[in-house]
Each structure stands twice: as C-alpha cells, then as structure tokens.
Amino acid sequence: MVYMETVAVIFGGRSAEHDVSIVTALASIIKPLELTKKYRVEAVYIAKDGAWYWDDKLKDIKLFTSGGIQDYLHRAQPASVQFDGGMMLVKASGIAGRKQTRKVDLVFPAMHGTYGEDGALMGLLDMTGIPYVGCGVSASAVCMNKVLAKKVALGCGLPVSDYMSFHKSFIERDASTLLKTILKRLTLPLFVKPAHLGSSIGITRATSETELRNALEVAAHYDDEVIVEEEVPNLIEVTLPIMGNDQPKPALLEQPMTKPEDFFDFDTKYLQGGKKGKGTAKGAQGYSQIPADLPKDLYKQAEELGLNVYRVMGCSGIARVDMLIDSKAKKAYFNEVNPLPGGLYAHNWNKAGVSNVELVERLISFAKERHAQRQSLATSFSTNYLQQF
Ligand SMILES: Nc1ncnc2c1ncn2[C@@H]1O[C@H](COP(=O)(O)OP(=O)(O)O)[C@@H](O)[C@H]1O
Ligand SMILES: [Mg+2]
Q1: How far lies 251's CA from each of 110, 147, 174, 306, 307, in Å?
Q2: Percent of the chain beyond pLDDT 70?
C-alpha cells in the first residue's frame, strides 16, 4: 500500500474566534483535504479550556452546531502529543491500557486569534521540526499585534494612518495628560483599539475628548497595549488574500459591503453574513464586491501595497491584508494582516480561479517548500567555549 502522509488540522483554541476556527477547519480545510484522497487527515480540536482532542468524530460539523460537543467533551479523554522525533498524537484506545498513536507528517493550523494565529502554536511546531502551513512565528506574532505591524510597515516606508501607542498604565496613571498629548498630535475622529484582539472587540471611534477618554478605558480593559489612530476619511475598505513564499501571488481585491456603522459588530462580520447588503459574493464579512469596483490605478496601488505588506511582515503560505482607502485622495493605507484568513478566504480564491482543493494542496506544497528551505540553513557551529572551563 502506498504510504499516505498524515496531515493534522488543529482548530478551536483559547481565543475569542474559537467558533470561527471550527468552521474554517471543517469546511475549508478538512473537507477539501479529504477530497484529494492523498492524505490521512486527523482532526485535532483544542477545547476552550485548552485540552486537546483527537478524533474522527470531530470532523462532523453537526457535533458542533447541535451543541453535542459539550456531551462529547464530558465523556471523551483528552489526547496528548509526544514530541520525540517529530509529532505524535496519542490517546486511549478503549482497550484497557492500550494507546492509539499516529505520527503526524505535516500540520495545518486552523486557529484564529490568540494561541493559534499569533505565533504561539507555530513556536511549538518549530520545536517539533515538522512542516506546517502558513506564517511562521515572527510573522504571525507581528501581524497579530496592531502596534508592531504598524511599526514594521511604517519602518519600511509603507503608508499607515498617523497613530500613537502606549501601555495601559499611562491611562491608569494620568489619563488627562495622556488625552492632551494625544489631541495635540492627532486629529479627531480617532479609532482606539486594543493592540491584540481582533474581530472589532474593544474598538471605538471617538469624535470628542470625552469619547476618547471612554474609548481608552474600554481598550485598556481588553489589552495592556492600546493604539490610537487617525480616521481615514472617504473610506473604502478593501482586503487582499495572498498566497506564496518568496513570490507571493494575490487573489482578487475584495470590498466588503458592510456599512460603516456596523464596523465594530462581531455579529455583522461573522454571523449575519447572509442578511446584509446586495453585493455579489458572500464571504466571512458578509456580502462583498469581488473584484472591488475601483479605478484601475487605485486597484493596482492597493494590490501592490498588499503584496509589499506581505513581504515586509515576512509572511509565508497564506495571509490576507486589509487596507483602508481614502477614495477622494486616492490613497491606500495599510490597516492589518490576518495570517490565517477565516475560511482561508476560499470564496475569493474560487473567483480568482483556485478551487478549494487546489487551495489546500498549494498551501501544503508551500509549507513543504518553506520547511525544506529552513532545514538547509546552518543551525549549528562549533566553538571551543566549553574547553575554557
Ligand atoms: N484608521 C481608521 N480609519 C477609518 N476606519 C477605521 C480605521 N481603523 C479602523 N477602522 C474601521 O474599524 C474596523 C475595525 O478595525 P480593525 O483595525 O480592522 O480591527 P479588527 O481587528 O477588529 O478587524 C475597520 O474594518 C474599519 O471599518
Ligand atoms: Mg479588521
């Protein structure tokens, strides 16, 4: 029999986007991976309490949509992972004392947000030495921190809206001085955001000093680090899914059609997709226009900005770059990068001519390519340091 590579899809996790991750994993990754008939696909689910489970039953979306998962978790034994010479899944087999094991050849992380998309999982995988899909530790960590991402983009000469960032202790110690400093440097209206959380949690648009004061408190409630940035006026939001390692290729520039007043609403982004707007395609952010209806030069400008952001952040495999366009000034600004776009943004790739199956297959080959490149780097050298003692 031909050896089938084992791909472990890891999803769920200790993050606000736990539920989104389940749908990404089951619908956009596991299903097409199984259709290829090339891989043995293992579902590895991290529950909200951080325990790991490995079971074919976890491939069934109904287990999660019906609420049956609670009952399952109540009965099931968590799995464990061994790291000797790679990565091995281990669980009780049902036969007393016996263990069931599976050696993993490649990991397909499907986690959004903290402990998954932010580099934490990638660090663990780097230690095991096995290949995995998507961005590595540093790119993931930078992208998931709005302050760091802005600094990197700015340092590389890419356009970002004017901003300030600070530790929350400044707000607690002397909010009045901080307010004055902010208002001296930046012009209202301002967007106040926690540095780390995604999905618009803790984000406020402030149009006055009083609103700014409240907005700072809200953001500091969610994060140690807070970012305050000037509003991009005449706003058109666009997002660009990108794939690849050294030679990243874009999908189509997409324009989510959600209304500005809905911007902070988690439900609008993820839950009510089908009910809003009259756009052309249903994506993870409701209806959207694909490709975005922009003048050619503005489209090109945003596409180039997206690709440059992908490169300077050191992304690999896949990511999605969000940009804010001032439609009057015809200028695109970098907003943020999502190292693991919800549902891999397959709806957009499909329009760009890449099927769901091709998408996961390409991602696996990028993962192997990156892994091979990293292995070819020198990681040890000899010194006579120890002989000196
Ligand atoms: N500087 C800005 N100018 C105009 N609108 C903004 C700005 N920053 C954020 N927004 C609006 O707020 C939304 C959420 O902000 P974003 O930084 O994308 O956070 P999230 O992590 O929640 O996606 C954006 O999609 C956009 O509609
Ligand atoms: Mg966003």
Answers
A1: 20, 26, 46, 11, 11
A2: 91
Let me know: does 319 contact 135? Beta carbons within 8 Å.
yes
My answer on whether 125 and 178 are in the same domain is no
Is 324's C-beta closer than 6 angstroms to any atom of ligand 1? yes
Per-residue pLDDT band for 269 (boundaries 50, 70, 90) equals: low
Q: How far apart are CA 349 and CA 209, in angstroms?
A: 43
Question: Which is the closest atom of ligand 1 to the Cα of 163?
Answer: 1
Task: Provide the number of structural domains found in the chain.
Answer: 3
Residue that is written with structure tokens 């389940």 in the block: 22
Question: For ligand 1, is residue 235 a contact (CB within 6 Å)?
Answer: yes
Residue 157 region, left (φ>0) first, then alpha (ψ -120 to 50), else beta? Answer: left
Concatenated DSSP letters of 303-364: HHHHHHHHHHHT--EEEEEEEEEETTTTEEEEEEEESS-GGGGHHHHHHTT--HHHHHHHHH
Structural domain includes residue 244: yes
Within this chain, do residues 9 and 137 fall inside the same structural domain, yes or no?
yes
Which of 112, 203, 259, 320 maximizes ligand 1 atoms within 8 Å of its Cβ, making it the mutation to test the pocket? 203
Report the nearest-CA residue for atom 7 of ligand 1.
231
User: In the block, which residue shows the tokens 């596409």?
Assistant: 303
132 with 36, same domain: the answer is yes
Statement to judge: residues 108 and 64 lie in one domain: yes
pLDDT tens track for 334-358: 999 999 999 999 999 999 999 999 9
Buried b (16+ CB within 10 A) or exposed e, 67-102: eebeebeeebebbebeeeeebebebeeeeeeeeeeb
Answer yes or no: are the C-beta atoms of 359 and 2 closer than 8 Å.
no
pLDDT > 50? residue 276: no
Using pLDDT thresholds of 50, 70 and 90, give the confidence band for residue 264.
very low
Say yes or no to pLDDT of 375 above 90: no
Residue that finishes a domain, picked among 189, 210, 230: 230
Query: What CATH number does the domain containing 203 carry?
Result: 3.30.1490.20
User: Closest-lying ligand to the alpha carbon of 258?
Assistant: 1
